[in-house]
Amino acid sequence: MKGLAEDLGIDADSMDDELDAMLDEEFAEKRERTPDRRECQSIYRQIALRLHPDRGGTMTEPEAQIWYRAQEAYAADDVLTLKQLWSHIANLDENVSGLSCGEMISSLIETQAQMEALRVLRNSLKREPAWNFSRLTNKQLRSRQVRVEKDLAAQEESIRQELDHLRVECRRLSAWQQRWESKHLGAAEQINLF
C-alpha cells in the first residue's frame, strides 16, 4: 500500500489514516448492540416518525430544533437526551403543557374514578363462568360442552321451524301471485281481442 501511495505521490501515513476512517465509518453500524444502543434506536425511530421532514412536510422552528438535537443525541448514543426530547414531543401532542393545576387535579381525580370503575367491573366479570375455563376440571368442561350442545340444538330446531314457516308463506304468496297474474293477464287478453 505504501509503495502505491509513493507512486501516486501521496503521503502513505495520511492514506492509512483515511483508509482507517473509511473503514470505521463503513463498519460503525455493525458495532455491538448494547441495551442502551437499542433503546436509543427505538426512541430515535419514534421521534423520526413524528418529525422527519419527509413524513410531515415543513417543520416549525421548535420542531426543527428538536429534530436536529435528536440527530446529535442519536449519533452520540445519548439516551437521556433522546428520552427528554421524546417526552417533550409527546407532551406537545397531548397539549399537557396547556393545562392548569386545577385541570390536572380534576383529570387525575376523574382518571382515578375511572380506574376504580374498571377494577369493580373486572372483579364482577371474574365471577362470570366464561372467565374460568382454565380452572375447570375435565368433568366441568364436559358438562358445559353438553349444555352448550343442547342450547345449540334447541336454537337449530327453532331456526328450522321458522324456516319451514317461511317456506309455507313463500308458497302461499307464490300461489297468490299466480292467481293475480292469471286474473289480470286474462283481462288484458280480453281487451286485446276487441
Structure characterization notes:
- This protein folds into four domains: 1-31; 33-98; 100-135; 140-193.
- It is built from eight helices and no strands.
- The protein is mainly α and 194 residues long.
- The protein has helices spanning 2-8, 12-27, 35-51, 53-56, 61-75, 79-94, 101-126, 138-193.
- Helix 3 (35-51) runs parallel beside helix 6 (79-94) and helix 5 (61-75) packs antiparallel against helix 6 (79-94).
Which percent range describes the beta-strand content?
A: under 5%
User: What's the order of the H and E elements?
Assistant: HHHHHHHH
Low-confidence stretches: none
Rg on CA atoms, Å: 38 Å
The outline comes out as elongated
How many helix segments?
Answer: 8
Counted beta strands: 0
The share of residues in helices is: over 70%
Question: Which structural class do the helices and strands define?
Answer: mainly alpha
Number of domains: 4
For the residues shown, what is the average pLDDT? 76
The largest β sheet comes out as: none
Our measurement of the CA-to-CA distance between the termini, rounded to an integer number of angstroms, reads 116 Å
